[in-house]
Design brief:
CATH architecture of the largest domain: 2-Layer Sandwich
Number of domains: 3
Helix content: 40-55%
Distance between the termini: 27 Å
Number of strands: 7
Strand order of the largest sheet: 1-2-5-4-3-6-7
Shape: elongated
CATH class of the largest domain: Alpha Beta
Largest sheet: 7 strands, mixed
Length: 333
């Protein structure tokens, strides 16, 4: 039983099976004292994973969420079903995240990533910034697809989780499906486009131009250094005329939506120091090493919990003196 417990813990921590087996061998005092071989441990872990899903991964996930709700009534979750009554998308937030929403939900960074799991479901975290300037998780979802209808559903879940207090500002990439969903669910929320996503497209859009270096330099100066909307508009027109870019569709579309991404149009509003969705991408990186291509929905939630427990401990080691008590963020309590 001790060996089984060790294998399960190590598997949750993503320790390779051969290393788990060797640790058990060492603990037993050598191979001569073992009553099973490495193949037995692989078989056991396989059976253990299948047992989590023996009634269907979705049902296991539902039971998990229900037990979390029993432990703490502030735990929030919602599930979207497809036509076959199968789970297609989920949203959840623990009590700590919901409390953080009340204090630090003014501005939200939202970005999806195909964080690898068994179903290749995009991972969609809502990320804020606390009073120490640290990224905090306000809630997250797993989506079966990235269309307007599902983003509307996800944002509605987020709104209920935030006790119907919409954020003052939200930062996303330029996708139209996101803009549509935000307009429907958060009609009074200011929408900012991630500046980094826009600027990284400059080589793709203009590298073929012989005056690419001059165009890029002028755009950088115009965007980052211009402090007045009127001057920005005059200099933008001058840039287009000088380099023959009046018919450039990409630039024309950007100009039409300039109030969503140009700093001089946004500086009079509170954005918690954010201008990009890199907070979201940094949060996604926190899950590296915890999730892999065989991770089921149920295991995803377990690994999500593990990642959140590890994250504050790493910060503690870097920033807190030895005498300072550690702060643990527990997803399931």
């Amino acid at each position: 039983m001790q060996a089984k417990h060790t294998l399960e813990i190590n598997d949750n921590a993503r320790v390779r099976n051969n290393k788990s087996f060797l640790s058990i061998v060492t603990n037993a005092g050598g191979f001569e004292n073992m009553e099973f071989i490495e193949k037995d441990t692989r078989n056991y872990i396989g059976q253990h994973i299948r047992s989590l899903c023996k009634d269907g991964d979705g049902q296991t996930l539902l039971r998990n969420f229900s037990s979390m709700k029993d432990l703490n009534n502030e735990f929030f979750y919602d599930i979207a079903l497809d036509e076959g009554n199968r789970i297609c998308s989920v949203f959840w937030a623990d009590a700590i995240s919901r409390a953080a929403c009340e204090e630090f939900g003014d501005v939200v960074s939202f970005d999806t990533t195909n964080l690898t799991n068994k179903y290749d479901m995009p991972f969609a975290p809502f990320v804020g910034v606390n009073h120490h300037g640290h990224s905090i998780l306000l809630g997250c979802g797993l989506l079966s697809s990235e269309d307007t209808a599902l983003f509307v559903w996800l944002f509605q879940c987020g709104l209920r989780c935030m006790r119907n207090k919409a954020p003052d500002g939200i930062i996303t990439d330029q996708r139209r499906v996101l803009a549509n969903a935000i307009e429907e669910v958060f009609p009074n929320t200011r929408h900012m486009w991630c500046l980094w996503h826009i600027m990284k497209k400059l080589p793709e859009k203009f590298q073929a131009y012989k005056n690419y270096v001059a165009i890029k330099s002028k755009l950088n100066t115009l965007i980052y250094e211009c402090g007045c909307p009127t001057k920005f508009e005059n200099d933008w027109e001058e840039l287009l005329t000088k380099h023959g870019l009046e018919e450039n569709e990409w630039l024309c579309n950007l100009y039409e939506e300039r109030h969503k991404w140009v700093p001089c149009y946004l500086r009079n509003h509170f954005w918690a120091g954010m201008s990009t969705t890199q907070r979201s991408e940094g949060m996604n990186a926190s899950f590296d090493g915890f999730i892999n291509s065989s991770t089921t929905l149920q295991q995803f939630v377990v690994q999500y919990d593990n990642a959140l427990r590890v994250k504050p401990k790493k910060k503690y080691k870097l920033t807190s003196p030895p005498s300072t008590p550690r702060l643990h963020v527990a997803f399931s309590h």
